[in-house]
Amino acid sequence: MSKNISKKELKQPDQFVSFWTRFSAKAGQFLNERRKPVLIGIGGLAGVVTATVIYGELHERSAMQASQALSHVERVATADLIPADGTAPKEDGLPHFKTDKERLEGALKEVDAFMTANPRNPLRREAELQKAGLLLDLQRPEEAIPLYTEILASRLDKHLRFLAQEGLAYAYEAKGDLDQAAAAFAKLGEGDSGPADSKGGEGAGNAPFYRDRSLYHQGRIAERKGNPAQAVKLYKEVLEKTPQSPLRDEITNRLAVLESK
Length: 261
Known about the structure:
By secondary structure, this protein is an all-alpha fold. It contains eleven helices and no strands.
């Protein structure tokens, strides 16, 4: 049985599933279906996106160079910190920093340098997503918001679009604009993950991408806005429409706390 969470925990930002974990399942399915080699790495709290290299669509050399450059940014962002006792970290060819903030700022400089040196790089959007995630990790949502907005206004693969949309929602939440955050989270469930069936209806491959996460986040924001009744309604909608959602236990715990008041 899942452990009930406290009322104090309900007030905390969404920290239950990492940004990368939330995306990895869908990304894995997408990549398997396409059967094209890619390189995907992990990032910070807001979900840093690294290079996505599709051979045959990009020139191999430039794609590999871009992939390596973005992979390096990611490695900098997750490199070991210098121990408090001053012990030198293991030699890995990476710069090392004393604090997480310094490390993130170092990674941000790396991705800025990459974008400046490669203004027409085919992986520029991935680099922008990476930068936006770093800005969000650095608690600079006012800078992340326009970047996410610009990314979403461009032609973008729908799975990367999901990452940008969720990042934008988190940025609004971090800024304290809960109405905009709720609206942005609502859009997560509006896109389609596949073609419609032969009858023109919503087939299994056409179910909106992460609708359960969209409703869950909207419920979470409703809680933060002091509207528990709306939160309960949204949480129950997830359980009714997506009974096998990986968020089921989390939502059940939240419902238990809300309905016990």
